[in-house]
Structure formats: C-alpha cells, structure tokens
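sry for the spam today, last one i promise. struct tokens for design, 99 residues
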C-alpha cells in the first residue's frame, strides 16, 4: 500500500480489478448441486451432510418493528465457510478440472 501511495503522489496511475462472488454464491440451486454430487459419485454420507447444511434454512426480513413471514431458502451456499467455494465450483465447473 505504501508503494501505491508513493506512486500516486508522484503522478502515477494504478488500475485495480475487483471481483465479488458474493451474489454468485447466492444463486447456486440446491437441487442441481445435490444432483451433481450424485453424478460425481460422492459418498452418500457426505451428500447427506451437505443436504443437512443446505436444506430447511429460512429467512425473514425486518423493517422497523415489522417482520415478514419466514421463507425457505431454495438456493445459495452459506458464505464464510471452507465448504462454500468447493460447492460453488462443483456446480459451475466439471469436477475433473478442480481435482
């Protein structure tokens, strides 16, 4: 960061590209992901464990003092986990390219 600051102070330009995958993680359909795990012959115990993580999750929205009804989450991978990026790549890439 110090080098960037010094460079900018002397009239230089720095180009930066950011990529945000947060919304992409929200779009992973649970049924499709589970289907792909079966296609890759993942151990059934592991698939059941992943199902337990993904299914029956609920959300609601609170505005001021009012809450919406609870709704089931039908897509998305919990963010901030080690498993999340792996599941994301399984759904959108061929497994052979990952391993």
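last one done:
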């Amino acid at each position: 960061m110090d080098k960037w600051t010094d460079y900018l102070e002397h009239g230089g330009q720095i180009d930066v590209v950011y990529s945000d995958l947060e919304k992409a993680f929200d779009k992973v359909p649970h049924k499709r992901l589970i289907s792909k795990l079966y296609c890759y012959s993942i151990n059934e115990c592991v698939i059941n464990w992943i199902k337990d993580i993904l299914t029956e999750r609920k959300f609601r929205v609170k505005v001021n003092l009012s809450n919406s009804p609870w709704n089931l989450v039908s897509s998305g991978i919990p963010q901030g986990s080690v498993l999340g990026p792996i599941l994301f790549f399984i759904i959108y890439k061929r497994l052979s390219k990952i391993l």
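The chain has a mean pLDDT of 82. ok im logging off now
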